[in-house]
Amino acid sequence: MKIAVLTDRESASGFRLAGLEVHVAERPEEAEAKLRELARRDDLALLAVDQGLVADPQALLARELRGRALPVVLPFPSLGFAFAEEGADAKGYIRRLVKATIGYEIKL
């Protein structure tokens, strides 16, 4: 069984470096079509989806996945989505992540 990721072009390289099967979409319409195609595959155990492209992938795939245990659909926030939600810059976002992880604030 495989893990596939549907994300934007900027994030794709990191997932490829991790050895995952990566599918890139530029627009939400393109992402939705690709997501439906991936959901029909029998060799996927996990399908991770960038919320910047598809906000609620489980709702979109409700019909396609009815009665099936796999693939598990896992939405994850994109970096652009995380910055927009918090109204922060990249350094501020990284500072908060580090503080939440190790308990100390660092100066970048």
Can you tell me about this structure?
The protein has 108 residues and is α/β, with parallel strands linked by helices. It has helices spanning 9-17, 28-39, 57-60, 62-65, 79-86, 90-102; strands at 2-7, 21-24, 44-50, 72-76. The protein has two domains: 2-76, Rossmann fold (3-Layer(aba) Sandwich), CATH 3.40.50; 78-108, no CATH class. The chain is built from six helices and four strands. It has a four-stranded parallel β-sheet with strand order 2-1-3-4. The protein starts with a strand and ends in a 6-residue tail after the last helix. The relative contact order is 0.16. The model has no long low-confidence stretch (mean pLDDT 84).
Give a brief outline of the structure.
The chain is of the alpha/beta class.
CATH architecture of the largest domain: 3-Layer(aba) Sandwich
Task: Please provide the count of β strands.
Answer: 4
Main sheet record? 4 strands, parallel
Helical coverage, percent range: 40-55%
Based on CA inertia axes, which overall geometry fits?
elongated
Radius of gyration: 16 Å
User: How many independent structural domains?
Assistant: 2
Task: Give the class-level CATH name of the largest domain.
Answer: Alpha Beta
CATH topology of the largest domain: Rossmann fold
What is the H/E order?
EHEHEHHEHH
Distance from first to last alpha carbon: 40 Å
Q: How do the strands line up in the largest sheet?
A: 2-1-3-4
Instruction: Tell me the number of helical segments per DSSP (H or I, 4 or more residues long).
Output: 6
Q: Tell me the name of the CATH homologous superfamily of the largest domain.
A: ATPase, V1 complex, subunit F
Identify low-pLDDT runs.
Answer: none
Provide the β-strand percentage band: 15-25%
Structural class by helix and strand composition: alpha/beta
Integer average pLDDT: 84
